[in-house]
Specification:
Order of helices and strands: EHEEHEHEEHEHEHEEHEHEE
Structural class: alpha/beta
CATH topology of the largest domain: Rossmann fold
CATH class of the largest domain: Alpha Beta
Helix content: 25-40%
Distance between the termini: 37 Å
Largest sheet: 7 strands, mixed
Number of strands: 13
Strand content: 25-35%
Radius of gyration: 23 Å
Strand order of the largest sheet: 9-8-7-10-11-13-12
């Protein structure tokens, strides 16, 4: 391993109907895909961000064999901090090579004996992890995702047609993989599902919706989670500021009387106000995107039963 390059290992879990969405989020974060439930990358992402990430290992050292890890673990200096070691279940071992539960606990004990310091299984100062992938062993700082998006499912105001918190969080990550100095707008914010996810990840986002009843619900939801941002009742055509990214969940079904002409204008205005637009649509809008001059750089679909949503990344 190149000692100058920090590596992170992420493990994942996702439902079959979320497969494409998972892959699109992975490409947005890391610029590459993974057909495995894990990815190794020099890019640092906090596991709380993704609805699919289970945990992250910040690699301190690696070895060809477990004995290499044990030898290096003896050199750790914890400065009187307590610790815990966790064996990550996700790996690429097959058949008889799989490590069973008892072996996993034994490996944790061996590492606990090798590390000079006080082990604490309940509330350690430091948590370490160990994983085997591709014939290598990796050891490092361990973080488990808190899945904070689960708390956001319980909003005072919600609509059955709104994006689920999982999809909204993934779409937000696809739109804004790195929030640093990025200004974002959700011009059809509905009851604020995307706003809540974005604000919980410290993304600089504002909201807007043409329906004043909906805007009232959005504000109530944000207040419930102690979140603040500008939420304006108004048409997208009234927007005068320019944004790095727009997240546009296209209006549909009986809550909207949008014609194709209305949708076209909405898309055209989104292109006017933002450099990058991530669109959520339940129908085929490729012909409109082409006419407006968008370039589609990535896309996927996500399903809930027979209900299909298209997630389209445009510039």
């Amino acid at each position: 391993m190149n000692q100058q390059q920090q590596l992170f290992i992420y493990t994942y879990g996702y439902r079959p109907e979320e497969t494409e969405l998972f892959h699109l989020e992975t490409r947005a974060f890391f610029g590459e895909d993974s057909n495995q439930p894990f990815i190794i990358s020099p890019i640092e992402i906090h596991p709380d961000r993704s609805p699919f990430m289970r945990e992250r290992l910040e690699v301190l050292f690696e070895g060809q064999q477990l004995s290499d890890i044990l030898e290096q673990a003896e050199q750790l200096e914890l400065n009187n901090q307590s610790f815990k070691v966790k064996f990550l279940k996700t790996n690429d071992l097959k058949g008889s090579s799989k490590i069973d539960y008892n072996e996993q606990r034994d490996i944790e004990r061996q590492l606990g004996m090798a590390i000079e310091g006080e082990a604490d299984m309940r509330a350690p100062d430091l948590e370490f992890g160990i994983i085997t992938l591709g014939g290598h062993w990796y050891f490092g700082h361990y973080i488990k995702s808190k899945a904070q998006w689960l708390d956001h499912m319980h909003k005072p105001k919600s609509y059955s047609i709104a994006l689920s918190t999982r999809v909204a969080r993934a779409v937000t990550n696809i739109a804004v993989p790195d929030p640093n100095e990025i200004k974002v707008i959700d011009p059809c914010c509905g009851i604020g599902t995307v706003l809540v996810e974005a604000l919980s990840m410290d993304i600089d986002i504002v909201g807007r919706d043409i329906n004043h009843f909906v805007v009232r619900g959005t504000r109530e939801n944000l207040k419930h989670f102690n979140m603040e941002t500008d939420v304006v009742c108004g048409d997208i055509s009234d927007v005068r500021d320019h944004y790095d990214v727009a997240i546009l969940d296209m209006p549909y079904n009986h809550f909207s009387h949008a014609t194709e002409e209305n949708q076209y204008e909405l898309l055209r205005e989104a292109r006017r106000i933002a450099d990058k637009v991530v669109i959520v649509s339940v129908g085929d809008i490729d012909h409109m995107l082409d006419q407006i001059g968008f370039t589609i750089v990535d896309r996927c679909t996500t399903r809930k039963g027979n209900f299909v949503r298209h997630i389209i990344v445009c510039i």
